[in-house]
């Protein structure tokens, strides 16, 4: 159960966290990079970041054409631009220099979920004055739905709670996140922002009333606060329970088609399927170009009630979007629901940890229960959750919309 995390609190002398109370984010990163296993992981991430050109997640190494079009959908572009402009007015010249990047800057793809302060781009909220920090939060508030903003702030508060649990307030706190702007804020032209740190990474592109907000990573360890001013705050339980209800609702034959492995860490898995850092996630940080074949059962093979449950589950992932973009994304998902696959790893008992992935031409979501990182549970438990939302076939970060916009603008310059 979610409240069981206290049975796995580490002793302050545990080698995993020993000395963290005396470290800030910089010293902690240096220490973690001295661990060979971690150093190898982060070196591979840095290599991809430095060398790979964006292509997008696909099922076979080829992008499906014609999936995305320019079409206004009521994104709050003007309000977002106003909030970003106010932030820029608050920033000193050196802060604007750190904050602002070209639209096509590689820094957009430098987000990562671990607490290790590896990519130091933009402004770090726990290092700036409160007015500037609040200006950043105002951009998030203008961009997200009310529910999405509350969810993001909840994840930040749980990160602070984890910092208190392990006595690491300078490594993990409510504001240990970085923020970047890309392009020039505008009600019509393309621009965007990203916000990233431990267990919360958001990437947002807006152009002419249209929005793409992926990749999105949301996670928590633990996923519930049981003490202090925010006691009772819980996150990600909706997509956990809806996913479990959907799997349980499938007939036995369809459950067998959806389930790839009986156990969360199954001996039948090939080497590397349980990955360092990512556990069973396939589409995490620095996986922008990964080939992920469809697995499991296709939406076209589900009954009408299960298809409705699948759409309801997907809506629980996309509810961070404002109403217009949310409706547009859900309509796109529904158009491709027959091609959308559900796969499952693990059990379906109340206390079973599990992984599932929903993958179609225009959306990928992943849900994964993890083993402890700062908590000591050696096996995945339900109080440590990671989730991901991706737009495959080249439209993460709104890249395909940017390409289409630039193509349209070039066409306007051609002689009639």
Explain how this protein is built.
With 416 residues, this protein is α+β, with helices and mostly antiparallel strands. It has helices at 25-33, 36-51, 77-90, 93-99, 130-143, 146-165, 237-249, 252-258, 304-318, 323-335, 399-413; strands at residues 100-101, 123-124, 177-182, 191-197, 200-207, 210-212, 216-220, 259-261, 297-298, 341-346, 354-359, 364-369, 385-390. Strands 1, 2, 3, 4, 5, 6, 7, 8, 9, 10, 11, 12 and 13 form a 13-stranded mixed sheet that branches. A hairpin with an 8-residue loop joins strand 3 (177-182) and strand 4 (191-197). Helix 9 (304-318) runs antiparallel to helix 10.
The share of residues in extended strands comes to: 5-15%
SS elements, strand count: 13
- Largest beta-sheet characterization: 13 strands, mixed
By DSSP (H or I, 4+ residues per run), the number of helices equals 11
Query: What value does the average pLDDT take?
Result: 96
Which consecutive residue ranges, at least 5 long each, have pLDDT under 50? none
Order of helices and strands: HHHHEEHHEEEEEHHEEHHEEEEH
The gross shape turns out to be globular
Radius of gyration: 21 Å
Termini separation comes to 66 Å
Helix percent reads 25-40%
Sheet/helix structural class: alpha+beta
């Amino acid at each position: 159960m979610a409240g069981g995390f206290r049975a796995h609190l580490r002793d302050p002398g545990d080698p995993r966290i020993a000395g963290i109370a005396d470290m800030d984010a910089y010293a902690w990163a240096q220490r973690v990079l001295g661990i060979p296993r971690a150093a190898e992981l982060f070196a591979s991430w840095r290599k991809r970041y430095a060398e790979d050109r964006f292509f997008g997640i696909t099922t076979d190494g080829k992008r499906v054409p014609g999936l995305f079009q320019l079409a206004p959908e009521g994104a709050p572009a003007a309000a977002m631009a106003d909030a970003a402009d106010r932030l820029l007015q608050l920033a000193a010249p050196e802060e604007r220099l750190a904050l602002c990047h070209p639209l096509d800057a590689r820094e957009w793809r430098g987000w990562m979920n671990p607490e290790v302060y590896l990519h130091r781009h933009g402004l770090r909220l726990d290092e700036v004055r409160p007015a500037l920090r609040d200006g950043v939060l105002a951009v998030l508030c203008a961009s997200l739905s009310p529910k999405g903003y509350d969810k993001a702030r909840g994840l930040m508060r749980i990160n602070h709670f984890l910092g208190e649990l392990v006595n690491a307030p300078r490594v993990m706190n409510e504001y240990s996140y970085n923020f970047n702007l890309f392009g020039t804020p505008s009600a019509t032209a393309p621009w965007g922002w990203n916000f990233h740190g431990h267990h919360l990474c958001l990437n947002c592109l807006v152009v002419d009333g249209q929005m793409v907000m992926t990749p999105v990573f949301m996670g928590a360890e633990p996923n519930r606060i049981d003490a202090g001013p925010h006691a009772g705050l819980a996150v990600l339980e909706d997509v956990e329970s809806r996913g479990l209800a959907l799997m349980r609702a499938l007939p036995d034959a369809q459950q067998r088609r959806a389930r790839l492995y009986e156990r969360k860490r199954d001996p039948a898995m090939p080497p590397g399927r349980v990955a360092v850092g990512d556990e069973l996630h396939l589409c995490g940080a620095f996986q922008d170009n990964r080939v992920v074949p469809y697995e499991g059962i296709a939406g076209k093979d589900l009954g009408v009630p299960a298809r409705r449950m699948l759409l309801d589950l997907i809506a629980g992932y996309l509810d961070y979007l404002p109403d217009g973009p949310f409706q547009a994304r859900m309509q796109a998902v529904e158009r491709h629901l027959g091609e959308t696959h559900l796969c499952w790893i693990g059990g379906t008992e109340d206390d079973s940890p599990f992984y599932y992935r929903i993958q179609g031409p225009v959306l990928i979501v992943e849900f994964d229960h993890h083993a402890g990182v700062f908590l000591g549970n050696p096996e995945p438990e339900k109080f440590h959750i990671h989730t991901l939302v991706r737009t495959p076939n080249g439209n993460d970060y709104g890249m395909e919309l940017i390409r289409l916009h630039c193509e349209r603008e070039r066409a306007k310059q051609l002689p009639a």
